[in-house]
Amino acid sequence: MSSTATSTFDVGTLAIDMLDLKSKRAVWRSNVSGTIPSSPERLNEGI
Length: 47
Hints:
Layout: E1 11-20, E2 25-35, H1 40-46
Antiparallel strand pairs: 1-2
InterPro entries: DUF4136
Pfam families: DUF4136 (PF13590)
Protein name: DUF4136 domain-containing protein
């Protein structure tokens, strides 16, 4: 006998770019991906 288990979770990506307004060029870029917590309190802790 076999069984299968499934899970559903949300995944998100946060991307941040910093620009030099005089030259209009990117000076820094970062991004992170991960699962999104279901509770707003846990979401704010991760930011």
